Fold:
Amino acid sequence: MSPRPTSFGRDTGLQLRMTFTLFLLGLVYVVFIGVLFAAGASGVLIAVIAGALLIFQLFASDKLALRAMGAREVSPQEAPQLHAIVERLCVQADLPKPRVAIAETRMPNAFAIGRSPKTATVCATTGLMELLTPAELEGVMAHELTHVQNRDVMVMTIASFFATVASFIVQSGVFFGFGYGGGYGNSDGDGDNDNSFIVLLLVSVLVYAVSFVLLQALSRYREFSADRGSAIITGRPSALSSALVKIAGTIEKIPTRDLRAPAELKAFYIFPAGAKQSLANLFSTHPPLEKRLAALERLERQLQGVPA
Structure:
């Protein structure tokens, strides 16, 4: 009996990187919370805000993402080909079938969201389905299902939450001010408060920068992992390569105004909207197309038993 595709598709390197990223971010934020206390911020307020934001992101981020894309869940009767592809791939990958959604946009793209395989949704755009052949579309959807299998969407959501909290606290501090509990009417106290806020602001900027770098690195690696998973599940790396080339070429021709609205979700796309505007690889959520194609070509040779 042949082994299941998932026994090859799981990426231990990705699991270790996700764990390490969350550990480092947690360590950074322990320091961050300590600075907040030292600056005089209310511990109860911090806990309430952080807890509420985390719960909101975990349970509502998928609905917000679908709404931002103008996507809606579709039934097998409404999208029979897409449902058939997803169902067939789930059987091959030994995954529960996720919800299937379609976004009405000319931008060819796809993404997966959800905190677990049982709550996941995979979404394809109308532009993608019009552009690709059935084999290429299968390669793209297998890529998204690998994200579901690896649970990296949940990790990205939690990791993004840390950066959101840092940003929120900085903005709240600018608007309301921190540490004024005992400083009213006291010029010395006001001076201490000013110094505390400056320290808080600098630490918050540093925390956000560290979060950004860690998230970008994890995001790029998870795309390589999902490409690999797609190649293993379908057995056709060349189909995904062809799809990526078509998507990249089409996105470059789409006016910037049509890419701007969904750009905040670019880390979750199979190919980032606005990639042509990327200033440097450091600021890209995805690895360069050339590197992804080269990795898929190596996988194609391996699957065909051709020596490297």
Q: What stands out?
A: The chain has eleven helices and four strands. Residues 187-234 form the longest helix (48 residues).
